[in-house]
Amino acid sequence: MNDITQRLQDIKSIRANRKNEDRLVSRIEKLSKQRDKQQKILQNIEAKIESSFEELENIGNKGE
């Protein structure tokens, strides 16, 4: 009987661990998507900054 109780406890523990693992995987996936989105935003900002510098250089060159 003690063996059965121990096995049930082990099964419950395994289920709890899997549930926690699933939560962690879900959180990691969410953070990964968030990182990808932020990376795209940063790339857009960098492109705008580069474009602005080019415009300023062109304006500066025209003034010379």
Helix/strand order, N-terminal first: H
Report the mean per-residue pLDDT as an integer.
94
Distance between the termini: 94 Å
Q: For the report, how would you describe the main beta sheet?
A: none
Give the helix level as a range of percent: over 70%
Report Rg: 28 Å
**Shape, please?**
rod-shaped
Structure summary, number of beta strands: 0
Low-confidence stretches: none
Strand content: under 5%
Find the structural class using helix and strand composition: mainly alpha
Number of helical regions: 1
Please describe the topology of this protein:
Blueprint: H1 2-63
In short:
By secondary structure, the chain is mainly alpha-helical. Helix content is 97%, strand content 0%.
Give a structural overview.
The protein is an all-alpha fold and 64 residues long. The protein has a domain at 37-64. 97% of the residues lie in helices and 0% in strands. It has one helix spanning 2-63. 0% of the residues are buried.
